[in-house]
Specification:
The complex is a heterotrimer of chains A (about 230), B (about 550) and C (about 450). By secondary structure, chain A is of the alpha/beta class. Chain A contains 8 helices and 12 strands. In chain A, helix 2 packs parallel to helix 3. The longest helix of chain A is centred in the middle third of the chain and has 20 residues. With about 550 residues, chain B is an alpha+beta fold. Chain B has 14 helices and 17 strands. In chain B, helix 8 crosses helix 13. In chain B, about 30% of the residues are buried. In chain C, the strands form 3 sheets. Chain C has a 6-stranded mixed β-sheet with strand order 2-16-15-10-13-12. The longest helix of chain C is centred in the last third of the chain and has 24 residues. The N terminus of chain C is likely disordered. The chains are: A alpha/beta (about 230), B alpha+beta (about 550), C alpha/beta (about 450). At the B-C interface, helix 2, helix 3, helix 5 and strand 8 of B face strand 6, helix 3, helix 4, helix 5 and strand 12 of C.
Chain lengths: ~230, ~550, ~450
Amino acid sequence: MKPIKVLVAEDDPLIREGLIDILQAEGYITVEAADGNEALAKYKTESPEFICLDIMMPEQSGFDVCRTIRQHDPAIPIIFVSAKSEEIDKVVGLELGADDFIVKPFGVKEVVARIRAVTRRCLAAHVLEEKETPFNIEHWTVFPAQLRARKKETQIELSVREIRLLRLFADNPDTVLSRDAIFTACWNESFFPSSRTLDQHIVKLRKKIETDPKQPMIIQTVHGTGYRYSGDV
Amino acid sequence: MKKKLTILLFSILLLPLIAIGILGYNISTDDAKLLSEAYRDVAERDLEQTESVVREFMKSTVSRYRTLCHPESLDANTLRDIPTREPSIVQYFVVNEEGQLQYPVLDETTGTEEAAFLERTAHLWKHRHPFRNTQETADEGGNRGFVTWYHNRGLHFIYWARHKDDRVVGFEVETAAFISALIAELPENTPINNLQRYHKKQTVNEQKNSHRLVKLVDEQDRDVYLFGDYTPDSKASPLASAHLPSPLSAWQLQYFASMPNTQGMWQRRTIYIFLTIGTLILAALILFAYFMLEYNRESRLARQQTSFVNQVSHELKTPLTNIRMYAELLQDHLDEDDSTEQRYIANIVNESGRLTRLIQNVLSFARSERKKLTLRLEEGIVDEQIRASMEPFQASFDRMHIQVETDLQTPQTIFFDHDILGQILTNLFSNVEKYAHQGKWMRVQSTMTEVPGGRHQVTIRVSDKGPGISNKDSRNLFLPFTRLQNGITEGVSGTGIGLTISKELAAVHGGGLTLCRTTAGACFQLTILAKRKEQRFARNPSAENTQPPPNP
Amino acid sequence: MKKCSPIIPGIAVFAMLLSVLIIQPNPASATKAQLSVEMSTPVVLNRSPQTAFLKVGVTGFALVQEAVRPPVNVAIVIDRSGSMSGEKMARAQDAAIMAIDRLGPDDIVSVVAYSHVVEVIVPATKVDDKEHIYQAIRNLYASGTTALFAGVSKGARQVRKFLADNRANRIILVSDGLANVGPSSPTELGSLGHSLAKEGISVTTIGLGDGYNEDLMAALAGNSDGNHAFVENAADLATTFNYEFGDLLSIVARNVRFKVQFNKGITPIRVLGRNARIHGRTVTSTLTQLYANQEKFMLIEVQIAPGASGEQTQIGSVDITYSNTVANSTDVLSKNVYVSFTDNWNIVEEHRNDDVMVASVELIAAEAQKTAITLRDKGQTREAERALEQNAVYLDSAGKKYNSARLKKQAQGNRTAKKNLAPSKWKRQRKAMVDDNYALETQQNW
């Protein structure tokens, strides 16, 4: 699955960093901007596929940035992130063509849910490659375009990264995949998280797909090397 | 609204003031009229003295002129000689019985002065006979009088008298000498102060000039002579005026005066009247200004408070976001088995959630104060919203061993404002958590009934078995900043606006929040009006609609 | 006042010297005025009508003692309008006080000040308490506008109080500004002067600075046989007052009446320089007063019909009556006028009276100069320039012919005037010309 580039424009560095962490954990590539002017510049040079815009920013407000970007690209998904929770702001933001509105203070889950929703709604069909058709891993059927997977009546939500991980495992059954290999396939070359980061992703993924996460059956740990999907459980 | 109030207040103040002002003005102008008439009388009497001087002058002048009209001889030499000695005469003339000019006539002895006289008076002899139809300028049955005319912009006049033989003898008067003599007779100004001593020795006929000015003005209203020590405005009109007798009947004496002594009284009265009115107006204005100031101060204070609350709340949001976000991120990263750490982190997350709700309430309150609340309807399921709102409390309820019973009967997809409903529910659950946890029980019920107009009323009840709310307290329950004083709430944090906001929000949503009668504990009943109709902000249908998940 | 005190004694000394000169005894004149009758050409060509000038002059006899001079009845009328403030007013006060100081206890003085209103500062009174009068004059201050006509009228009123044939009745007007209240035209003030003269009151007008109306001031003085002076600098006021009082204190005759009766064949055409009346062959004129040792004359231009050659013919007679203020009598002077006819031009030239010729040329040139002034007034500067040049040429040639330095000097004066027609210089130049012409026409010797 092709990585999705997200522009995060937010003047508070901690919030910006946190959002970037969340997005990267979800499997997005991030570009950051600290004010309205930088946001527009980055939009032009980096060509992101998705934008998170703070409203109250120095130089130019998020509304102004949104207005300018909309003149170039009416389709690019934009999520406003703001402390301005008043109705009027939501109205203005949405009328300007924002796709969603995250109100501070927000929870990680809310952000993830909204980003996934927007990705699903606006991006999946365009960015995902041809081969990103539903596939099976164990009893799960994964729908990349929906960032979801199903097993009988159970439906789970997945991140872009998780889908890439599942795809990697599904494509390489019974193969021990080294952490480096997994990184290379599912993370960007430029970004190498610690092995712990990978392990945590695997833990989270196991929580979602394994019947008993303590006794993983689908993604097994190969100590000292990496992980393996045994296709014949 | 504010502008209206200002106008209202202002007109309430202004109208009586205008009335008083008009009344005062009328009184003072009536007075002014009376007094100015009285003063006019004084002026006229004063001017009368000057007029009598003029009359005396005219009388003696005319009598001298009459004598001059009867020279010892009417032959040309005499008539030529007399004017060389007599200051008043420019030129004699004689008109014979037939009305023909007998002297001067143009012949070889005619002098230049005579020729000039004939030219100056040509029209007098040509166009009319000046000594027949001039009853108005002649006295004693038209036997003598003045004739005036203008030549080369200068005033000229002749005096004539009819002799017994019916000849008319007259002369052109030296105008400058006449005017000069008149001026000489009129009073002049007395010189200033320390010379008075010197003047006492003299017999001076000057009148005392007491703040007045008398003007002799010509037919074009130009000053000819002035006396008096008053300097009127250039636009001032005279208090009194009188025309001069013939031949200067177009000239006037004008009397100007300041308003001293007799007028001082009037001025003082006017001053008192206007002072009183002025004081009233001033007092009213001060009162008005005070009210305006007070009103403005209050509204400004309120605005400031609101905007302060807004600002602080917004400022709080950023650090709160960071606390919450990083706590949650940390939660994600912690191993499941680090139970103590997980618990601590959970506490941070829960508390930041609570802080979030508090801020939300404060902001909602500030907004509702400004009456800016609007409804944003979105498609959804009420029961799901109830579950979602309850979710953050789950851990806390578990810890407090609060048993939660649900009886949710509203699974239909309808349009409602998710934020508003969520906020109200959060407030209600939060109240249970804070005040009714010792009851260890909470029940949430939801039902939906159809109401006329194709709309649906959703009713949600939240009951607990806590200490309940006394009748006395229930009266003030929904007022802002009310916190129950029954001892139970002591030590529990709260803003005291949760229920107020919830009630208002419910009202915005077409419903209400009431306290139900129960035997034990408290029970709140929330109703909202849900609409089927598509609203303008419902353009955000969920993903399920565009791409429904495959039904297994 | 203090700062001017050094001037006063100086001027007083000068004035005393002057009066000594004037009072030089002249045994020939005795106590009667002298009448002179001179023809410009006592011998005329006997061809068709000839033009000649008849000069009729009368010279005041010398005053033997100042004590016998007629008492003065003078009103000093001072313009105290705003423009007079400061130096001008101070100098006018000095001059008036200094002049009054020369008067004796039988003299009568009054002081009138005018702005828009008129104040009689000192009503007509005998000069017996000078300090009171000076105090009153010193109290004058300047402000307001200029009611000149009224000021003169009020001055006249004061003079009238003691008007007598044997007094030197006079108004002295000092003004620096344009009359703007009351009658203010030269014609009106001229008429006033004329009527005052008939009452025996002369008005001397002293124009101060360059802001007054010289035509008005000259008309007022001229028609009343007063003096006129242009005082450019206030500091010269004292000198002017001294001259004026010098005249005033040397009056020997008043109410001088001229009557010139011409015979048949002689036609008077015009009178140069003075107001006179011509009725047929009769010319009459009056002179309000005659000063000691001063000649006043009039020039009558006459046309003479041809007569018989070689024959001396009487062409007319001159009669003068006047009040002798010294002898308190009415004197009559008579002379006949004769001409001889010739057919030889050289004889005419031989008998020519150059003094009369020069006087005629002077007055004719003065008329021409007035024409130039009128042209300049109309803005026709170039025409005025030409007129002045022509006048200068005329005066030069006449000066050469009659060998007259006066005429040559006058020619020079016209050439100077020509250079001063520019707006910046004209105001002053015009006043100087009016003043000069006035002196010329009225034989004012200062």
